[in-house]
Write a structure and sequence with these properties.
By secondary structure, this protein is mainly beta. The protein contains six helices and 36 strands. The chain folds into three domains: 186 residues, no CATH class; 214 residues, no CATH class; 131 residues, no CATH class. Helix 5 packs antiparallel against helix 6.
């Protein structure tokens, strides 16, 4: 028997001797494992990374099929949810397994012994006879990694997953495939099956030598990361631009009734035997059928107000499906029970009425205490991506409630006199050139509710870099688009001058103001002025939703793959608008320029002295 070696990896390369030797009878099955950028609860909460995967460990299923190749009738009789952990630089597991040694002239049988290996991370403890989590915590039994096949079930291993919108407890999920250049780390005996990069280790035989037999798993993210925030902005068309906080909380409040997002599923089963290289294979929660995605995943508010939207809700009302309870109209503090927020009876005087949507940004979904919403690295949870080639749609159903003791009508509390208006709006959230949520990517959706529009900021990252995009519900006017561009805040940049709308006509008048000492200072400050202009033009797309600009007769569109933090406007040949602006300003600062947008003309006057 030859012992087995395993591993898991991201981008690191493993080397192995090129010479093939006779297999030593005591060579073990060996493993390596590396996480692709980023591990996490049932499992462990948070990103899985190369730095923490060693302690969390990964799980392996191995199927010994003797002389037959792997098929649907195989069972994990060689390894079942085998935990592999790292100590120092060495991956290990117990009990150690040995390669079947029936091959060649000295073999007892003529057939070749095959073993097939699958892996997932983070390792989670399951009862082998049932495939259910060992944990007795109700929440961990119902969210995140909740089940696998039992140790007698035939066919591909699956990992059942239910989305948990609380960033404090949401769990990353990865699956293992052979890393690139498999022959560098695993050399099977000549004439037998070699691993395929991007797929599990199917039909493996003992390696050609004890040092050429490491199964090196590349653990890839099967989920996407999402953060959704919501706030109120007064976007009335005034030269001062959009402002926050004009809503009088003692008179008018905005309450969510329902939020719906397309592009992902709340539950599914990850089949570890992916059929496309490096692409996760998601199926329904039982693992039998391809995952069916509804048009929207719906999150209801949970209040008892006569508008209940789901059947069999608690207390004859609808169950709150994960929305942040402070955004929902209720009259008492919510209580978290087994992952569901439940509310006690309403109070007649409205004491403790929730604030609803305010000028202060809040998480759209319920979160545990201690998460800093201003920290760009906090507040994410994991979702099952649809990856079906369609743009993501977001739909909001919300009430604007205004107290007015002179009217006969009542608000949703059935006590307070006033007027309640329900709004139902939807819009695509376009993440650059991409469509849908994709595994291994990180998304930020910022919802801005206004009195005349609903605006959505959408950012997509590859776990680190950001490319912000913004769309509006309904489409903004040019005036509003410029307002939002002026108000847009770059985290890494402050304007040296100021922008202000001077007239609302056609063309729209915009003034850039700055002050420098003397003509020489003005000339030396020209790069700073160009930077201000470039950032403002970038904000027209990022915040104002402008899709096309024309400058000096040349059309420019946004490059969603551009790497500049300000403007990524480019013409048909790839020349940037920033370069065109810099060229136009090289011989001196003009008194004014005109830029044409897909919403109308902007005449920019430069007041620099």
């Amino acid at each position: 028997m030859s012992a087995m070696l395993m591993a898991a990896c991201s981008s690191e390369e493993l080397s192995a001797p090129d010479t093939q030797k006779e297999v030593a009878d005591n060579a073990t099955v060996k493993f390596d494992a590396y996480a692709l950028r980023g591990l996490t609860r049932a499992g462990a909460a948070g990103d899985v990374t190369n730095d923490n995967i060693g302690g969390k460990g990964f799980g392996v299923f191995a199927y010994y099929t003797d002389g037959a190749t792997y098929g649907k009738t195989a069972t994990p009789d060689f390894m079942y949810n085998q935990k592999v952990v790292k100590t120092g630089d060495t991956w290990s597991y117990e009990p150690v397994k040995y390669w079947p040694n029936e091959y060649g002239e000295k073999a007892a049988s003529e057939g070749t012994d095959y073993v097939t290996f699958f892996a997932y991370a983070p390792w989670t403890d399951f009862v082998p006879s049932t495939g259910k989590p060992v944990t007795t915590v109700a929440r961990d039994q119902n969210f995140n990694i909740i089940g696998i096949k039992d140790n007698t079930e035939m066919g591909d291993p699956i990992v059942q997953y239910v989305v948990d919108t609380d960033p404090q407890t949401s769990v990353d999920l990865l699956w293992g495939v052979a890393k690139e250049n498999p022959s560098d780390y695993y050399k099977p005996i000549a004439g037998t099956t070699a691993p395929q990069a991007g797929y599990p280790f199917i039909n493996m035989v003992k390696p050609s030598s004890a040092t050429d037999g490491k199964l090196s798993f590349n653990l890839r993210h099967a989920l996407a990361k999402v953060k959704v925030t919501i706030d109120f902005i007064d976007d009335a068309a005034t030269p001062a631009g959009p402002a926050a906080g004009k809503l009088k909380a003692d008179e008018t409040r905005i309450y969510l009734r329902e939020a719906s997002i397309s592009g992902f599923a709340l539950q599914g089963a990850l089949n570890l035997n992916n059929t496309e290289a490096n692409k996760p294979l998601w199926k329904d929660i039982d693992g039998d059928k391809m995952l069916a995605f509804a048009d929207y995943v719906e999150f209801f508010d949970g209040r008892r107000d006569g508008y209940e939207g789901t059947a069999n809700g608690f207390n004859n009302g609808e169950a709150n499906t994960m929305l942040n309870p402070t955004l929902v109209e209720n009259f008492c503090a919510p209580v978290l029970e087994d992952g569901v927020y439940k509310f006690a009876a309403w109070t007649a005087d409205g004491t403790g009425k929730t604030p609803g949507v305010t000028a202060t940004s809040q998480f759209l979904f319920a979160t545990s205490a201690g998460i800093d919403i201003t920290d760009e690295d906090q507040g994410f949870f994991y979702i099952i991506p649809r990856n079906g080639g369609q743009n993501v749609d977001l739909r909001l159903l919300y009430d604007v409630e205004t107290i007015d003791g002179r009217v006969a009508g009542l608000l949703a509390d059935r006590v307070t006199h006033g007027k309640s208006i329900t709004n139902d709006l939807s819009k695509e959230a376009i993440f650059g050139a991409g469509k849908d949520f994709e595994p291994g990517k990180q998304y930020v959706i910022k919802i801005h509710l206004g009195m005349t529009s609903v605006k959505i900021d959408a950012e997509i990252t590859d776990w680190t870099d950001t490319t912000p995009v913004e769309v509006s519900i309904p489409d903004l006017t040019l005036y509003q688009a410029v307002q939002y561009a002026i108000a847009y805040n770059y985290s890494d940049f402050d304007y040296s001058g100021t922008w202000a709308i001077s007239s609302a006509g056609d063309p729209l008048g915009l003034t850039y103001s700055n002050t420098y000492a003397g003509a020489t200072a003005i000339v030396s400050s020209r790069p700073a002025i160009v930077n201000d202009v470039a950032r403002f033009l970038g904000a027209l797309y990022r915040a104002g939703g402008i899709q096309k600009l024309t400058f000096q007769g040349t059309d420019y569109t946004w490059n969603p793959n551009g790497t500049l933090k300000g403007s990524n406007w480019e013409d048909a040949t790839g020349n940037t608008l920033v370069n065109a602006i810099a060229t136009a300003f090289s011989s001196g600062l003009p008194s004014s320029v005109t830029v044409t947008t897909d919403k109308g003309d902007i005449n920019v006057t430069f007041d620099v002295h």
